[in-house]
Amino acid sequence: MRQDWTRAEIAQLFDLPFTELVFRAAEVHRAHHAPTRIELCTLLSIKTGGCPEDCGYCSQSAHAESGIKAEKLMDVDAVLASAAEAKAAGSQRFCMGAAWRSPKDRNMDNVCRMVAGVKAMGLETCMTLGMLTGEQARQLKAAGLDYYNHNIDTSPEKYGEIISTRTFKDRLETLHNVRQAEINVCCGGIIGMGETREDRVGFIHALATLPRHPESVPVNALVPVKGTVLGNIFAGERMIDDIEFVRTVAVARITMPKSMVRLSAGRESMSEAMQAFCFLAGANSIFTGDKLLTTVNAGENADAALFAKLGLEPINRGVDVSDDPRQISVALFSSAA
Ligand code: SAM
Ligand code: DTB
Ligand code: SF4
Known about the structure:
The structure is a single chain. With 337 residues, the chain is an alpha/beta fold. The protein has one domain (7-336): Aldolase class I (TIM Barrel, Alpha-Beta Barrel). It has helices at residues 7-15, 18-32, 76-88, 108-120, 134-143, 156-162, 168-180, 197-208, 229-233, 242-255, 272-280, 300-310, 317-320, 325-336; strands at residues 37-47, 93-98, 124-128, 147-149, 184-186, 189-191, 216-221, 260-263, 285-288, 313-314. Strands 1, 2, 3, 4, 5, 6, 7, 8, 9 and 10 form a 10-stranded parallel β-sheet that branches. β6, α8 (197-208) and β7 (216-221) form a beta-alpha-beta unit. The longest helix is centred in the N-terminal third of the chain and has 15 residues, at 18-32. It binds S-adenosylmethionine, 6-(5-methyl-2-OXO-imidazolidin-4-yl)-hexanoic acid and iron/sulfur cluster. Residues 51, 53, 55, 58, 60-61, 99, 130 line the site of iron/sulfur cluster (SF4).
């Protein structure tokens, strides 16, 4: 995999005629993944609201006036009950999110019990808890954590306009700690925060030049939440052109061929045709269920209908995969074709 992408090369990809860009992305997608198979992940907010960070997009920041109240960390049993529901609904990965700047050491015991319990159900485990020390990352790994989500969100230049309570470099440090602990990395960001094309180039460049590409790359479309800084600016509508969003997905696919590219927040406001374009351009993972962390998601019925319409199927890890999910499902797809 190439880690030496230049900004100029990434800008050239963005500049391609749209159909040419999507065609190239689809080619790369087919070479590395089974193109009709989509990974299903489910989110749960295990600790909602009252976050000391000032991320301008986030309903859970204590600096926002979104009406989300601060809650305590959920009980382990309640989290496991929710994971069991997600598994019964066909989800493959259970992603637990906490509105923390970073976990306190006294939280680690409960959080690790959540990981171990979810893992024991046969689900893949993912957490997003804010910044981690090396020691905390090692504890999560020992508990059975498969993935850690920690987004860079936007370009290094734009970062300080969106968040002032931590730096882009802080983000990279946690990503390093997660990698050192041999936990898979889930890292992406948000499109539609008023960033320029150059910012989107810088965002993809930062991801595609990490020492190793993230195994998962969530591409969120900003969900404008009233009472947040960005929600107040972009009240009530998605502030990214559909075609530019699909271009971003396509460039992520081309530059990070093996990564799972997740069509994440904002899907609820996307048409079926727009989502189909994203799948064609290389997106191969979604969040299922009717809720993300605090905002609404497309919901299982809508997704089942969309999958049926498009002929998509969930990745069935038990059947399609053993050691390397992607390679074996590619092999299955090729022999079926
Ligand atoms: N506190 C942790 C952290 O910041 O890493 C984890 C939770 S945070 C909600 C996870 C990610 O969700 C953010 O990095 C951001 O990319 C995404 N996100 C949050 N609010 C969003 C919104 N309104 N629209 C789109 N994406 C959002
Ligand atoms: C990610 O990139 N998107 C997810 C997950 N990682 C944790 C979160 C989306 C949150 C959307 C806003 C909300 O529901 O509060
Ligand atoms: Fe806190 Fe994460 Fe929301 Fe930022 S994105 S305010 S760190 S919960």
